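Person: Show me a sequence?

Helper:
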Amino acid sequence: MGLGDKIKNAAEKAIGEAKEALGKLTNNSKLETEGKIDQGTAEAKHAAEDVKDTINDK
């Protein structure tokens, strides 16, 4: 995984965490759900990049 991808995924996850926290704080279930989805998307991208890295290393 390139450094740029790592930074992008970390930022996406952080934004998702912030959305989720703000959603909980304001009792906004839609925003909370969006945050959870953003975090899941970032984690999935990270996992896919790890698989690509493993394949490329072999």
User: Anything to note?
Assistant: DSSP finds two helices and no strands in the chain. The two ends are 15 Å apart (CA to CA). The CA atoms of residues 19 and 34 lie 7 Å apart. The mean pLDDT is 92.
